[in-house]
Amino acid sequence: MKNFIIDTNVLLQDPEAIFSFGDNTVIIPIGVIEELDNKKKEMNDLGMNSRHVSRKLDEFRKRGDLREGVAISEHNPDGGKIRIIYNGNLGTYRKENDVDFHVLHVAEKIKKEEPENECIVVSRDINVRLKANALGLDSDDYVGNKICESVLLDEGFKEVSVERSIFAALMLKLECDIDLVFDDDNTPFPNCYLFVKGPDSDQELLAKVSICRKRVEVLPSTPESIKIRSKNKEQAFALDALLDPDIDLVCLVGKAGSGKTLLAVAAGVHQVVDRSYFDKMLISRPIMPMGRDIGFLPGDIEDKLDPWMKPIYDSLEVIEKLSSSTNNKSQKNKVLDGKKIAQESGKIFIESLTHIRGRSIHRQFIIIDEAQNLSPLEVKTIITRAGEGTKIVLTGDVGQIDNPYVDSKSNGLSVVLEAFRDSGVAAHIILSEGVRSRLSEEAANRL
């Protein structure tokens, strides 16, 4: 039997964490309840999780005395239990900075009272774990909502070599049976992209595994109406996924300057504005500042969103400039306004994620930029809004996370990669090569 002392940040990240510790005892210090109470009025993910945990704990209270322990499962009274512990010193949790020590004091108390049972402090805060170690207490991070290490190593494409006859068949028919390329033990997931190499050094093809996993199909050429050209095979794979009507969810993950946002916006403009495959293009980003926030922003909701949407406007300006220079060379040096381009299109809308809950969004091309700053619950809320004919694109860099409550493995973007990588309706590409500029690539690699 083990005793797990749970820190507030664990419950704020995953309100169902109580049920993740098997047949052991989950102990919540009363200071954690105080912190949850301070968060309950916030109209965001943290506030919602706080209220959810409080309701769950109240359900347990109605079934028994939480001081002594209440069975987590009504059907298994001899299994795991949940307790709320007060260590007799109200001053240890009156100040927010002291809650950490209150958690550790409770852990010390339980360790002394039950030396026969292992006592473990569970916290997402590395400093709490360091303090626990200094006090001789065992501690661990919470991994319930984390992805496995391998998903971040899955690039979304593979390099394969084939015999001359198979390469010739691909060149001629633009497809072949998957059994000719892979055996049963290493068949990739649906919509896995392939860099196919023939026996000669100059024989190369870009292909992908079809949804039914029965065919390898050579990628079609990018439509001329899309002014953005892929600069490497990763971008070619990304553009195909963005344009494929059979793929409803696309995740583009990559470092700064790899072209994630520009590719997504270019594909959206082509399919919404130029071809009307979708009724609207909806673009949004989490409102998460880098470094110190500049404070209150005046104006209506559109004015408040403007600073956060500058990267989107930049992409629209690049696309418009490429389109204008192709059609009219005199427009090449024209100063463009991305916000005005979006407004004049009548089909490109910049929206906040704040009020997305409860909506049902049909026939729209949705881009969620900087998705690494979203929690798994927030991403689930967004994706489950998709109605018929809607496509969702998540872009982000798991190496640039500004949300203090998630990390490279527990953020919403990474969790979606793990959950959907064997799905026939989804595809993902890891973009590793910077293309923004020589300086941007050098900075991304050196800093």
Question: How does this structure look, described?
Answer:
This protein is an alpha/beta fold and 447 residues long. The chain has three domains: 2-140, Rossmann fold (3-Layer(aba) Sandwich); 146-219, Roll (Archaeosine Trna-guanine Transglycosylase, Chain: A, domain 4), CATH 2.30.130.30; 244-446, Rossmann fold, CATH 3.40.50.300. The protein is 34% helix and 18% strand. The protein contains 14 helices and 17 strands. The chain has a six-stranded mixed beta sheet, with helices on both faces. The protein has a six-stranded parallel beta sheet with strand order 14-13-15-16-12-17, sandwiched between helices. The protein has a five-stranded mixed beta sheet with strand order 7-9-10-11-8, with helices on both faces. A hairpin with a 6-residue loop joins β9 and β10 (204-209).
Shape annotation: globular
Number of domains: 3
CATH topology of the largest domain: Rossmann fold
Give the rounded overall mean pLDDT: 85
What is the fold's blueprint, element by element?
Elements: E1 2-6, H1 8-13, E2 25-29, H2 30-39, H3 45-63, E3 70-71, E4 81-85, H4 99-113, E5 118-122, H5 126-134, E6 138-140, E7 157-161, H6 164-173, E8 175-177, E9 193-197, E10 204-209, E11 215-218, H7 233-243, E12 249-254, H8 260-274, E13 280-284, H9 301-305, H10 310-327, H11 338-345, E14 348-350, E15 364-368, H12 376-383, E16 391-396, H13 412-420, E17 426-431, H14 438-446
Parallel strand pairs: 1-2, 1-5, 2-4, 5-6, 7-9, 12-16, 12-17, 13-14, 13-15, 15-16
Antiparallel strand pairs: 3-4, 8-11, 9-10, 10-11
